[in-house]
Amino acid sequence: MRFVCSFVVIILLAGSAFAAYIPMGTAQNAADWAAESTWGTVTLLEAKTLLRPDETPSSYCFIFGYNGVTTLDESIIDDGYQMRQIGLIDEGWDVARGADSYCYVIVSTDNQYGPVLEMCDGLPAHKIFREDVKDMGEVIYGTDVEIFGFYYLAPLENWYR
């Protein structure tokens, strides 16, 4: 019986350690290493905590500039959106992503799934889709809407408040 109890305790301890909270600094170290291993010299431009729908932290999003880019220019998101509205769909997405200038790494706030969940050239989906989401909100509510929060559930599954 003692052997079985010890085994259960070990399993419980291992399970709780497996989902341990990762501090922002540790997550940034993982993101820096992942980005530099993939894109070479990068500059951290933004670090944000993304939430789950219950308002608990789900992940950290780190946006980097590369190819000499040292500032985050979000006007390209609006420019790309406007291009898509006039029918230049592919061109608009390319402009909005800024894949020649930006890359991002999303790191889990716990190590249950990662730590690195997603990394890609360009800006992350929760930024690029914001104008589309605002448009949809205006259609539904009949008035201007504002986005108050970004939620990250899984790669390409972002919610907005």
Structural features, described:
This protein has helices at residues 2-18, 24-39, 75-85, 89-97, 125-128, 130-141; strands spanning 43-51, 57-65, 102-108, 116-121, 150-154, 157-160. A hairpin with a 7-residue loop joins strand 3 (102-108) and strand 4. The strands form two sheets. The chain has a four-stranded antiparallel beta sheet with strand order 1-2-3-4, covered by helices on one side. A two-stranded antiparallel sheet has the order 5-6. Helix 3 (75-85) packs antiparallel against helix 4 (89-97). The protein starts with a helix and ends with a strand. The protein is of the alpha+beta class and 161 residues long.
The mean pLDDT is 82
Number of strands: 6
The topology string of helices and strands comes to: HHEEHHEEHHEE
Number of helices: 6
Strand line-up of the largest beta sheet: 1-2-3-4
Q: Give the overall shape.
A: flat
Brief synopsis:
With 161 residues, the protein is of the alpha+beta class.
Annotation keywords:
161 residues, alpha+beta, 6 strands, 25% strand, flat
Per-chain topology:
Layout: H1 2-18, H2 24-39, E1 43-51, E2 57-65, H3 75-85, H4 89-97, E3 102-108, E4 116-121, H5 125-128, H6 130-141, E5 150-154, E6 157-160
Antiparallel strand pairs: 1-2, 2-3, 3-4, 5-6
Helix pairs in contact: 3-4
